[in-house]
């Protein structure tokens, strides 16, 4: 098995600092104190791959797009592509690790660099392109592979992750990469991040790609969630009953929790996190740091899983970080329609220990009083 590994080092940086994405916002994300998310996600996938498939052949890309992480995981790359040098990415020129573009280590990366790297993988007949990023990265990889049958598989590291070309977790990506025997054509989706920041979600089909067939792949996101009026009324009534008790409610993004916010009497941040305490909004569209600064002695996260995928944490709500989750009780809410579309709930918080602690059976509020048991796997 020959795997080409490419990492988008800035993927997901805008999430925890409240930017809903990183496209065109890298400088602002850094100014807000954002830390890279993708390298750790890549490290987890590569470490797992080295454990289960140490004999795999790996090609990768100069720093900061994968080389160091591949070597640290125990693989000696057979080829290190330098997309910052157009001539080097020509498969006819070949490459050697010792010539691997060290000048690029601190360079700013772009979509074009990703496409160049993937075309180099394609031209050297890799069996799989394993990429680390979000929907934008998936779009670039799919564009570079267009016209070929080389499959692609994503390690999810972006903020949105609407496409169905991603594994459920970094470790699952390694498992799929090491064991798949066939592929199928799947959708690559992305949205306009500027419109997304304004609360408008319009996923667009950006490509069709060959993807390994496996159970541990997520479905495309669904934007409809069914009727939630009675659910919103019931949850909002419970929250109002605690007004004056000093309970801090961290209200997640999405239309289901948005209906609860509207029932409480304020205009929701449709894709942001709002904080409520004692009858008023404390912070609108809060970042991770702002949420942590508002938490008190008793805190409750109210969150709804993503329709079609079942992710409670880790897709579209990175502001709800491990540090935030550990300080809160968690209330999961969803319409019956949404739950009918998922087999199980999932979490992907960037903290495997927390993911394990959250796993198990949970009560999901589905109506004014009704609940349904669902398992987080």
TrEMBL record:
Keywords: Kinase, Transferase. Residues 93-114 have a biased composition (Basic and acidic residues). Residues 87-114 are annotated as: Disordered. SUPFAM superfamilies: NAD kinase/diacylglycerol kinase-like. One of its GO terms (molecular function) is kinase activity. InterPro entries: AcoX-like, ATP-NAD_kinase_N, NAD/diacylglycerol_kinase_sf, NADK, Put_ATP-NAD_kin. It comes from the Archaea. PANTHER family: ACETOIN CATABOLISM PROTEIN X, ATP-NAD KINASE-RELATED. This is ATP-NAD kinase family protein. It comes from Halorubrum tibetense.
């Amino acid at each position: 098995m020959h795997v080409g590994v490419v990492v988008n080092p800035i993927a997901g940086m805008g999430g925890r600092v409240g930017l809903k994405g990183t496209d065109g916002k890298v400088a602002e994300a850094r100014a807000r104190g954002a830390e890279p998310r993708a390298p750790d996600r890549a490290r987890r996938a590569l470490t797992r791959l080295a454990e289960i498939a140490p004999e795999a052949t790996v090609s990768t890309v100069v720093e900061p797009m994968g080389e160091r992480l591949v070597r640290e995981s125990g693989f000696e790359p057979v080829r290190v592509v330098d997309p910052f040098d157009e001539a080097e990415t020509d498969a006819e020129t070949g490459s050697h690790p010792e010539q691997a573009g060290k000048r690029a280590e601190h360079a700013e990366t772009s979509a074009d660099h990703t496409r160049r790297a993937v075309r180099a993988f394609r031209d050297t007949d890799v069996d799989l392109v394993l990429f680390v990023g979000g929907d934008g990265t998936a779009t670039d990889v799919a564009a570079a592979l267009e016209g070929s049958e080389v499959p692609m598989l994503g390690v999810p590291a972006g903020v949105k992750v609407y496409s169905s070309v991603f594994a459920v977790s970094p470790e699952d990506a390694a498992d799929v990469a090491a064991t798949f025997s066939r592929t199928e054509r799947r959708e690559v989706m992305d949205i306009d991040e500027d419109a997304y920041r304004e609360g408008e979600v319009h996923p667009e089909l950006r490509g069709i790609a060959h993807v390994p067939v496996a159970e541990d792949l997520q479905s495309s996101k669904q934007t409809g969630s069914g009727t939630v009026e009675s659910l919103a009324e019931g949850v909002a009534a419970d929250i109002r009953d605690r007004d004056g008790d000093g309970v801090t409610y961290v209200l997640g993004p999405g239309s289901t929790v948005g209906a609860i916010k509207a029932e409480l009497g304020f205009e929701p941040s449709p894709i942001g996190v709002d904080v409520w305490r004692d009858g008023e909004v404390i912070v609108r569209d809060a970042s991770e740091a702002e949420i942590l600064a508002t938490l008190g002695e008793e805190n409750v996260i109210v969150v709804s899983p993503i329709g079609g995928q079942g992710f409670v944490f880790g897709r579209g709500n990175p502001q709800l970080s491990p540090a935030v989750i550990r300080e809160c009780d968690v209330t999961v809410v969803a319409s019956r329609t949404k739950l009918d579309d998922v087999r199980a709930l999932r979490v992907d918080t960037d903290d495997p220990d927390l993911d394990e602690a959250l796993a198990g059976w949970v009560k999901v509020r589905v109506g004014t009083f009704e609940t349904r048991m669902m398992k987080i796997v």
